[in-house]
């Protein structure tokens, strides 16, 4: 079994991004907006700042109060949309309950939507036009490419159908000519579907959902999930030890998809900066 080392590849990608970024007439700029006090979100925002430093980007952070209003947030997004030096805008999700995520996402200039969540970018992915790809599935594809896993002609099963992971993941695999099945909470006989998969992507958020017997011999298994076990340790959906007995390739958690998501955000921000400087 080969471990798909996302940490190592992410470091390589970020070094490549930096090389390009420092050559641009104006360095890429990313604005990250955090609303409220979610501790996990706080950690993600801090790591994005570190990534920006590593890549030679300019970055700004905005911390709005938990009680922030929709108007306040939309006003900030509008200001950032108009800023020449900001190429990417990322509003950290989830938002507090009084704020409407969809409205906020739609307010971001699609040219600066480095998360790839705006309907313009989601639509572009659906019909195969250039846009920004959501970072997690884009990072998974980078990882598969690095290890020479070609989805063409393979059976791919994606477990989970969220707008930010499952659906775009399925579309990217389809684009690369896999035959794709998408499973979700209403799928009867999940195990049977999984056992057919040459490429199995788990994106649910439930520890232990994918057991060893659900993994086909020689499969490529990608575990997107980030759960906490009883000891507070980060873990995925896949029973790693049992899956390792059967899989040919397997991502660890942590050190698999997580770092790749972060690297993909840096790639998107570089791309946004190049496009906005008419260099891509
Ligand atoms: P989500 O919006 O909660 O979606 C979860 C999906 O799993 C839903 O489509 C749901 O089906 C499906 N599901 C729930 N229970 C199931 C079951 N028993 N069998 C089959 N499918 C089931 O979550 P998400 O935002 O996509 O994130 C998924 C996981 O990835 C989470 O652990 C999250 O923390 C992690 N994540 C990791 C990264 C990273 O960088 N590594 C990035 C984003 C997310 P229904 O649609 O029917 O409800």
Question: How would the blueprint of this fold be written?
Answer:
Elements: E1 2-3, H1 6-21, E2 29-35, H2 39-55, E3 58-64, H3 70-82, E4 88-91, H4 101-107, H5 119-127, H6 135-146, E5 155-159, H7 166-175, E6 179-183, H8 190-195, E7 199-202, E8 220-223, E9 227-228, E10 234-235, H9 240-244, E11 249-250, H10 257-276
Parallel strand pairs: 1-11, 2-3, 2-4, 5-6, 5-7, 7-8, 8-11
Antiparallel strand pairs: 9-10
The chain binds NADP nicotinamide-adenine-dinucleotide phosphate (NAP).
Can you give keywords for this protein?
10 helices; binds NADP nicotinamide-adenine-dinucleotide phosphate; six-stranded parallel β-sheet; alpha/beta; three-stranded parallel β-sheet; Rossmann fold; globular; 2 domains; 280 residues
């Amino acid at each position: 079994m080969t471990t798909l080392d996302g940490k190592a590849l992410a470091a390589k990608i970020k070094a490549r991004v930096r090389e390009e970024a420092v050559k641009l007439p104006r360095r890429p700029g990313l604005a990250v907006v955090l609303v409220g006090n979610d501790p996990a979100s706080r950690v993600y925002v801090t790591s994005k700042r570190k990534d920006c430093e590593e890549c030679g980007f300019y970055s700004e952070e905005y911390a709005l109060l938990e009680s922030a209003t929709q108007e306040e947030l939309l006003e900030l997004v509008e200001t950032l949309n108009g800023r020449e030096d900001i190429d990417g805008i990322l509003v950290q999700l989830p938002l507090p309950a009084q704020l409407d995520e969809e409205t906020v996402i739609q307010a971001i200039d699609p040219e600066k939507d480095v998360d790839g969540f705006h309907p313009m970018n989601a639509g572009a992915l659906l019909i195969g036009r250039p846009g920004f790809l959501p970072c997690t599935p884009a990072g998974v594809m980078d990882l598969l490419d690095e290890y020479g896993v070609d989805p063409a002609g393979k059976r791919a099963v994606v477990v989970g159908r969220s707008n930010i992971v499952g659906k775009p993941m399925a579309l990217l695999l389809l684009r690369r000519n896999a035959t794709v099945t998408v499973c979700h909470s209403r799928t009867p006989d999940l195990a049977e579907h999984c056992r057919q998969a040459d490429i199995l992507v788990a994106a649910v958020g439930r520890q232990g959902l994918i057991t060893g017997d659900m993994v086909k011999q020689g499969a490529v298994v990608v575990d997107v999930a980030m759960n906490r076990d009883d000891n507070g340790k980060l873990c995925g959906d896949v029973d790693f030890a049992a899956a390792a007995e059967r899989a040919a390739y397997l991502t660890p958690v942590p050190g698999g998809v997580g770092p790749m998501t972060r690297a993909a955000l840096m790639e998107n921000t570089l791309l946004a900066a190049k496009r906005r400087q008419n260099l891509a």
